[in-house]
Amino acid sequence: MDIQNEQVGMTEQPVTTAPLQQADSDPICPRCGKVNLPDGGFCRFCGSSLSAPPQQFIPPQPAPTEQYQQGMMGNTYQPNMNGGNFYQPQYTQNAYQPNPMGMNGYYNPNPIMLDPRISQFQASALQAGQREIVRCSQISKRYGNLNALGPIDLVIGNGRVIGLLGPNGSGKTTLIKLLCGLLTPNTGTITINGCPVGAATKAMVSYLPDRTYIPEWMKINEILNYFCDFYADFRRPLAEMMLANLHIDPNAVMKTLSKGTQEKVQLVLVMSRNASLYLLDEPIAGVDPVARDYILDTIIRAHNPDSSVVISTHLITDIEPALNEVIMIKYGTLALQGDADQLRNTFGKSLNDIFKEVFAGC
């Protein structure tokens, strides 16, 4: 019992230990500076070799505040005031001038729209000696919450071949269907030869849609008979002559023809009418390049000289020689309208180049 009590008393007494003293043989890690046991060649804390030479501590350098000169390019660089080690070039020795196109020296994708001369082409007006065929006053068309067109004011005169140009979704087809009476505007009025769009204007407008609408089971001769009965102004001899020039058999059935040949037949039918306004929606989109020249020549020669032809297309280079006037629509608004030669002479560019600058970024 005395022995047990003595042992219990010994365990209850606090045990004090002296702090570990570093021996002369204990190595110090040259990397982290901690003491290691002498039985290993690598630091137990960071894994570095204990025999490596000590590393000299280099404090971080502050960001430079002076200007640095790059001798090869000759450009003066200034530190980025927004922080970081990025530098912005200040082109001082290479004679870089601010971009005259605007946007504080950055490239503007629509440079022609900043040219003050463009203002004379942003209002719709008749050319000298023209008679008014179409007048649109503040017309607009909406599909639910989507505003497809307008409101715009537009005037089209007689004796012109007009290119209706714009990117997809700009409102070209919507405008053509409003002129045909296939759509009704939400606001505004449209007159053709002074008459509101309706039954009276159907005889004044010849319309070529952007898709095939003739039944595939009909022969071309049957279609000619149908047009003669339906349209009093249809010129059958002219249609037969154009079909012969295009080497199209009048006895052929529509479904046996290729898509391009079907489009040629429809164009012949439309241009054979003696109308006041011809509306052609993508007339040469599916036609081979060899036949395009003939078709464009047909459009110019076949239409009534006192009428006007409106051609909606993306193939500007192909139809540019045939155009007297252009109308450009951008996001449902009138971006530009004017005489084709006057536009080319004013800006020294082709209509295709003008189109690219007006609609860059759309």
Can you describe this structure?
- This protein is 24% helix and 21% strand.
- The chain is of the alpha/beta class and 362 residues long.
- The chain folds into 2 domains: 77-113, no CATH class; 116-358, 3-Layer(aba) Sandwich (Rossmann fold), CATH 3.40.50.
- A 6-stranded mixed β-sheet has the order 9-10-11-6-12-13, sandwiched between helices.
- The termini are far apart.
- The model is unreliable at 5-11, 15-22 and 64-106 (pLDDT under 50).
Query: What radius of gyration results from the CA coordinates?
Result: 41 Å
Proportion in helices: 10-25%
Task: Estimate nothing, just give the exact number of structural domains.
Answer: 2
| Helix/strand order, N-terminal first | HEEEEEEHEEEHHHEHEHEEHH
Biggest sheet character: 6 strands, mixed
Morphology call: elongated
Give the DSSP E fraction (strand runs of 2 or more residues): 15-25%
Low-confidence runs (pLDDT<50, min 5 residues)? 5-11, 15-22, 64-106
Q: Strand order of the main beta sheet, please?
A: 9-10-11-6-12-13
Distance between the termini: 102 Å
User: What oligomeric state do these chains adopt?
Assistant: single chain
CATH H level of the largest domain: which superfamily? P-loop containing nucleotide triphosphate hydrolases
Short characterization:
The protein has 362 residues and is α/β, with parallel strands linked by helices. The protein contains nine helices and 13 strands. The longest helix has 14 residues, at 289-302.
Structural topology:
Blueprint: H1 2-12, E1 68-70, E2 75-79, E3 87-90, E4 132-143, E5 146-157, E6 161-165, H2 172-180, E7 187-192, E8 195-196, E9 205-208, H3 220-230, H4 236-245, H5 259-271, E10 277-281, H6 289-302, E11 308-312, H7 316-319, E12 325-330, E13 333-339, H8 340-347, H9 351-358
Parallel strand pairs: 6-11, 6-12, 9-10, 10-11
Antiparallel strand pairs: 1-2, 2-3, 4-5, 4-7, 7-8, 12-13
